[in-house]
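Teaching note: in complex prediction, the entire set of molecules is handled at once rather than each chain in isolation. The prompt given to students was simply: 'Predict the structure of this complex.' The entities are:
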Amino acid sequence: MSLVIIIFGSVILVSIGGVFAMLYRGIDRKLVAHMQGRVGPPIVQPFRDVQKLLMKESIIPDGAVSWLFRAAPFVCLITSALLLLYIPLFGQKALLGEFGDALLIVYLLILPSLAYAAGGFASSSPYATVGAQREMVVLMSYEFPLAVAIVSLGWRIGHATTANPFMFSTIAEYPIWSLVGPLGIVGSLILVFTLLVVTSGKGAKVPFDVAEAETEIAGGTLVEYSGRNLCLFYLADIIKAFAMSSLVVALFIPYNLSPLVGIGTPVLAGIVDGLFFLVKVFAVMFISISVIRTAMARFKISQVSWVYIMAMTFISIVGLILIVVDLIV
Amino acid sequence: MSLKAFKRALWVYHLNTGSCNGCDIEILAVLTPRYDVERFGIRLVGSPRHADVLLVTGPVIKQMVPRVKRIYEQTPDPKLVMVVGNCGIEGGVFYESYNLAGPVDQIIPVDVYVPGCPPRPEAIIHGVAMAWVKLEKAEQGVR
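The expected output is the structure of the full assembly:
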């Protein structure tokens, strides 16, 4: 693939993905407001927030490590946007899909959180330091259930084909639901549940938003950020939530609508698949972010760790065992 | 510079300078489903660095003076200051008390005053609307 395609494709993909991610954040806020019996902000509210943050002054505190404080928001946004290039979006193949697979995504997902923590430590505020430490604890907590979910999916697909089972093209070619029997379907549903809960934590949403808890540590890692730097973190958060939901879609619902309906023309099929992808991502985001965020209150940091390290790990391993038993029986 | 985006996405930091908690509860009432200011894009934030509006309640007691100044300086420009309640405007029931450093506008510049003890939530929303009017006038003055 030529460099020109990669550069222009990345720019187009990230801007389209970013616009939809922001719209979805607006829809999320609207839905949460409706569920709480409020009217809620207009759907374009995230765009207004970004516009407003861009015209604000960016203050760099005296005690902060200046270069790290400035670099962290950029690293966070760039690594979040990078996710969009490796995950298949809008029913199409991922732009850099041939260079990276689902395991690469697991590692890439760590980087934005590390940037958050680095920015927090660099801001020299005690609130930000506490927030950054919590961010690291949460990061270490949800890594294991996430890895179990992805690896057991790849392991099962690896028994059906000799191709690299972690490539998104292989996952789309051999959807897990058509490979396994009844036990395996239960196991896969458990893995989907694990991934949905991890998505909520990755997006740093209530009840897992201990690192940014506004009411107890005044915004946590972001406490000293303002103006353009805050805007970059705001965008990165939105894009990361969208990418994480797209990952769940790419792993467990890799179906396209056009072959089922029987649309032959490539352009029309692309439009139908794109819209169907948006519906799938909406469903994932609605369950994993909006509903959980409305229904629950914030956990304490020890409870977040317990939920992920004990409960979710146990549940995901049950899912893995069910898939293994299904293959043996 | 789009002022429309600025005034439709105001993030508010609530600063208590010795209030009796009456106004603070009314401010929380503004966020509840009945009044729901989030439909105007208004959000309560936890840090003055994120804020566009400083919502000050209470007469300023002497020990709060350096803190009030510092929080005002920590807030990035452009910013608005709103005083909610009689105490912050002229002292209220604490008028001429020995431990007051005076009303809020003797310490930091104030844009909007919302009188009342405590003011009704409608009055606080009206105060935000007045802040929008002031912003519009400022914009016309700049052009």
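Point out the following to students. The mean pLDDT of chain A is 85. Chain A has one domain: 3-328.
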